[in-house]
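The records we work with from here on pair a chain with its fold. Taken together, the tokens spell out the fold as the letters spell out the chain. The record below shows the convention in full.
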Amino acid sequence: MTETLHYRLPWQSSSVYPGAHPGQMIGAGQLFKRHEPLIASPDPRRIDLRASVLDPFSGYRVRVYQQQSTVNVYLLADMSASMAYADKQQTLIRFLLTAANSAFGYGDKFGFIGCTERIEHRWLLPAGQHLGRVSALAKQLEGLTFTGSAKGLQNAVAFLPAERSLVFLLSDCHFPLPQLRALLGSLQGHDVIPLVLWNQDEYAALPNWGLISFQDMENHATRTLFMRPSLRQKIVAAYRKRQNDLKHIFRAFGSEPLFITERYSIQTVNRYLQQRVA
């Protein structure tokens, strides 16, 4: 059974193409928008006799309706080395296919921007409605080894359209906070939905005692620590502080992040999306 993302927009799309979301255009729709003179909207079937009688200029008034429109949906993906840890890479691929199928189901266009040290054209998929290209991209990602950092995220806005788009930002956000602020600042013209992938094994599964070697997956630097209860508590506290810092930064830019710390499920994401516009 195909999973579906039930996303809704808390804003009006400027697209001229009919779709499933509130739009700025007038046309076929159920939601009354305003009255206009018959000469401006020449559709006699929609003449409002009451409004016409009340018109001080004795003109015919026509009811016009808000058109439902399409939107461009993008997945902006962190493909750095840290995203190869545990099941993050598989979650990215699964979400890619789910988001694309859902966008096509709504009649929207879907695009993908994958970011490592830089943005490579092979990880760019312009917004369109080609499921075959999305499936081929997913297969390529299956056999890819994620390496390096996610510095390419800073240039992602150059590959987004000028009109407001819905952008899912999928990352573990294991990069400097100033880099995140710069990224969100560059994306302020779009509706950003942050999905933060964390694995509890990174911090919650640490033992109370013993020697533990840690390796930075991006620069491969290693460090050996003698674990003890007090150090374990400090590490867990540092993760909690990091989570709070990330929440504050996202909220400062008008986005509420969803931290996916346990097993990924589309039901969890859909509950978050429903609360977002409730």
Notes: The chain has two domains: 18-69, 72-276. The chain has a mean pLDDT of 87. Helices lie at 49-54, 88-106, 131-142, 177-186, 229-252, 266-276. The domain at 72-276 is CATH 3.40.50.410 (Rossmann fold).
